[in-house]
Design goal:
With 137 residues, the protein is mostly helical. The protein has a domain at 61-135: Cytochrome Bc1 Complex, Chain D, domain 2. The protein is 64% helix and 0% strand. Helix 3 packs across helix 6 and helix 5 (97-106) packs across helix 6 (122-135). The longest helix has 30 residues, at 2-31. The radius of gyration is 31 Å and the shape is elongated. The chain binds heme C (HEC). InterPro entries: Cyt_c-like_dom, Cyt_c-like_dom_sf, Cyt_CIE.
Amino acid sequence: MKNGLKLLAMFLMVGTSFVQASSDAAIEERIKPVGEVCVQGDPCADAAPVAAAASSGPRSGEEVYNTKCAACHSTGAAGAPVSGNAAQWAPRIEQGLETLVSHAINGFNAMPARGTCMDCSDEEVGAAVEFMVDASK
Ligand code: HEC
């Protein structure tokens, strides 16, 4: 019985120091990275706003196509050349990318200016044209 108590006491001690050790590690983890923490005024702080701005930067061609152009260009509505249809796109691609982009931006017959995406930049419309052209070769 005495031995049993000793053993229990030992377990408690070992257990306590183990808990102590692991919370030390947790504290170290929390206070550790002086080099990784970005303090205002440090050079690393300048990088943060750039990363934040990138997420609201220009949409990709695929994104613009899917949200703004696919309504007509995946179905052929109003006679739109279907994205992925090489035969329909070949004669258009022959005009050159610059002409295609300009037609997409300014409108061309039943193709409405900017595909009706009034908040699309020239760059975003151009990226969407390139996305369709690449998909239709
Ligand atoms: C309301 C339907 C509609 C939407 C939306 C639309 N298009 Fe079109 N698009 C057309 C039609 C119709 C044509 C064919 C015009 C023609 O050749 O007479 C066309 C043609 C084009 C052409 C070929 C122009 C040429 O010179 O042959 C490009 C490039 C193009 N669209 C890009 C886009 C892009 C990029 C978007 C999205 C930002 C878009 N379109 C959204 C209907 C649409």
